[in-house]
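Supplementary Note 3. Input sequence used for the single-chain structure prediction.
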Amino acid sequence: MPDDKLLLIPGPSPVVPRILDALARPTVSHVSPEMARDLKEACENLKAIVFTESGEPFIVSGAGTLSMEMALLNTVAPGDRVLVLSQGYFGDRMAQICKAFGLEHDVLECPWGRAVTARELDARLKSKNYNAVVCTHVDTATGACAPVEEYAAVLEKAGSLFIVDGVCATGGLPERMDAWGLDVVLTAAQKCLGAPPGLSVLVLSELAMEKRRGMASVSAYYSDLLRWLPVMRDPTKYFSTPCVNEVRAFAEGTRIIMEEGLEDRFERHELFAEALRAGLEALGFGFFTDPSFYAPTLSVVRYPDGVDDRAFRAGLAANGVVVAGGLGPTAGQVFRMGHMGNLTSAQVRAAIEAVERTLAGLGRAVAPGTGRRAVDAILKAR
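The predicted structure, written as discrete structure tokens, is reproduced below.
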């Protein structure tokens, strides 16, 4: 029997039947016309999703962490200095990747639950020059959303390459690559883009590609984007066999995004985030993230006093909804709920009803319909 639980972790997000059908098609040759058509369309749609006319898209078998590695390896030359803006677990991971490859780097960090501000970034850049600056758009450990557009305005004056980790953002909130001056947007297939896991996804600006071409080599073979570039431009060419079915499913996912319309999709993410938070708050939950930095793609939720993390998440799963526990210092204190990708209003309502049933099952006094009414008040007002 299939597992029909509603998956509301910070990724993977629920995969809709259209994409599952594409995934289940018979495997074709990786250089076939069918595969070439889907990869080419996915690349073009990806450019639209990050609002670029001239960027170079890359879709490669791998995970978001590989996207992080590829972004750094292909834009940071020996002797370059990198500034990592860390607002949590995945900013720290970017610093760990820099260390693993021997890249000279500094970390500008902030307390978990908020993001580094543009003013803090500007102050750091006045004291030291950096060839590249890296930020996590949305950190899935803390729920904090970074002010990427504000960073970009600061970096335009500094002349640093700007690398944005959009793993929990791309396709769920704006990343206007050309207008803002983003040099790399890296992401993965399985979060806001709504496809199954298995693909590393990047888009590089002309400036970032010039930087790669100016480097004699990179400390990798598979991750060298110049080896992948001919394939992205002509998918009938060969470098390394891709995950054919995952690419075709991803292409279908990008079609769904384009059919919905980007601005409508961004608005829906904001609406569902607001509705779920209203429902959770009505049921006595709080939030770990500073409200000034809320992300539209996930929430990091504090428990009411006396609610045990393991018991709650197990009960919620029994009621048909799967969420994630906290990472690092938040473990046992919060749960993380994703509300991204191709989620529907019916699923939002089902999620809050499951939370309410779970609380009641744990012996909490909950007036029936409390969470649902709060959710409906937001959804019906729009």
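DSSP finds 14 helices and 13 strands in the chain. The chain has a mean pLDDT of 97.
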